[in-house]
Amino acid sequence: MELRQLEYFVAVAEEAGFTRAAERLHVAQPGVSAQIRQLERELGEPLFDRSGRVVRLTAVGEAVLPYARAALAAVSGMRMVADEFSGLLRGRVVMGAVSTPSVLDLPGMLAGFHERHPAVEISLVESDPGRLLDGVVTGRIDLALLGLGAPLPPGLEVRVVVDQELVAAVHPGHELAGAGPIEVTELKGLPLISLPPGTGLRTALEEMCARAGFAPHVAFEASEPYVLGQLAARGLGVAVLPESAVAAPASELRVLTFSGSGLRGRMGLVWRGGGELSPAARAFVEHARRHLPDLGPDC
Prior knowledge:
With 299 residues, this protein is of the alpha/beta class. It has helices at residues 3-15, 18-25, 29-43, 59-86, 106-116, 129-138, 200-211, 225-233, 279-291, and strands spanning 48-49, 56-57, 91-97, 120-126, 143-148, 156-170, 192-194, 218-221, 238-242, 254-256, 264-272. The longest helix has 28 residues, at 59-86. The protein starts with a helix and ends in an 8-residue tail after the last helix. It comes from [Actinomadura] parvosata subsp. kistnae.
């Protein structure tokens, strides 16, 4: 039995699929399948039910998964102790992010950490806020950059790094194009363009409309904030987006503020608290906090 087999087993269990596990491990999918089959032969029992569209753990797989995780954690702990004695920071850190606004120099932050700690492997993954939060909670992701809206799960710490006013953007021929600051109620019944559910911007929009007594009619969704403005410039509806994401020229788009709404979009760094991070991950979090702006208060 090899540690690589245990690592592959845990990855397939957490990703619920061989292909996603291979992508996470940066290896070929047939190699993952071969190692899992070898592990199953050594144990004499199938670890996964492969009969459905989603790979699921068998009863044996559920029973041995905690032991596989414990074995990997023990080996990681041994390496960290040895590295602390040698004074060399090693390991692997994983950062998750939704689309990154131009006001944050995320590539520069990653490059700076690599320069200071070249022996630490850095991985960057992009996903939706729900999967990122789940990754932080379960330990698959050390630090995530995502929109803030709904309350975070317990045990997580957060630092606000983006805090922007949200605005409405419309085509020059839209009925609201000539207005000054608009009331939230003027969005009622209109086709809106927003980020997907679960994002901080979408949560802020839904809460703002709920306070005004109606549910927003979101006709178009896009995962990139700047795409929202592009859709609005085509006359497809009212885009609600951060002010910095308005990339279209004034001839294609009219930008409107909200009257007295206090509608803002926030993004934050999120990580596990309580000393649960590895030395490499702790150093990475501290580096990110130094490099990226602090628009607190932390929440």
